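Instructor's aside before we start: the two examples that follow are unrelated to each other. I chose them only because their records fit on one page, so don't look for a connection. First example below.
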Amino acid sequence: MAACPAATTARVGAHGGPCRLWRGGDRSPNFLTGSATSLPLSGRRPARATRTRASASELQQAPGAAAPAATIPTHKVTVHDRERGVVHEFVVPQDQYILHTAEAQDITLPFACRHGCCTSCAVRIKSGQIRQPEALGISAELREQGYALLCVGYPSSDVEVETQDEDEVYWLQFGRYFARGPVDRDDYALELAMGDE
């Protein structure tokens, strides 16, 4: 199978071939050529090889393909980072994770697992709403109290949040399961355990 020319990235793989391109109002397939072997795309051999070039404005979507998505709403997110004493303001599309969008804008926020399973990126919502269907690291009870995880949180409106201490959130979530209070770190026991390896 011949490779697609580099300039034909508009509709690769649509309807019947690796290099199919649709052009014009009649939605008939064109014949693509390039530095590689020319490919007939209509299923029949052309009478003679021709070079057809489609400008970007002429390219249209293949019949039966989904229409372009409507514009995704964006929301202003304000994060008060208690640990660093910094306030970050940035815009996040409604269908994007807050943490990922912040990182794409060179904003550093706390995180660990990136899968919604821990409490490193936990925040307390001051105003607005965050949708977080994949947040396994915090209970439904904590979510009702206004806690959210930035790594799996989508903004549903403009939102203002404050980062939380991971240990505090962990204690709120699991502290009732410890009979004598928080578990203290035992460095001596840790050294012994590491020495056995």
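Example two begins here.
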Amino acid sequence: MDPEDEYNSPFNFEEEINNSYLYLSLKENFTPPSSPAMPYRGTQGQDSIPEVGEDAVATVGQTGPIPALSEEEKEELHNELVKVEEEIQTLSQVLASKEKQVAEIKRKLGITPLNELKQNLSKGWQEVTTSTAYKRTSETLSQAGQKASAAFSSVGSAITRKLEDVR
């Protein structure tokens, strides 16, 4: 039995296609009529940089039909492609090596992830406490605390006097 004979599609392509379920268009940047989706704009902005691990090929948009290339041009592009792929592989290996080197140096220095976290928190807290906004807020809260303390003291004194008068 032929494998194609075994599979029966749930769709009947002989009948009309349900437009609310499926919309096919030859135009790349076309959104179906009455579609709630935003028009397709591509995966990246023109000036954006691909994220780590993102396939750079997905970020390159076609500007038109693929030009016809001679065999010589195809060979030249193929060689360039191989060269760039090799460079990418080399850079990946160098990066991995450098990351291992950093980890080894940190281990020798006794820098653990916990120590790094503590240092980062200390540095961050120091930056916060030396900021102008923190200083102003601290001064304002200090003044408010002094005023509140004075107010409670005077209220306490007034209550004490009233209790003494009651006796």
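Helices lie at 3-6, 56-59, 71-109, 113-129, 132-166.
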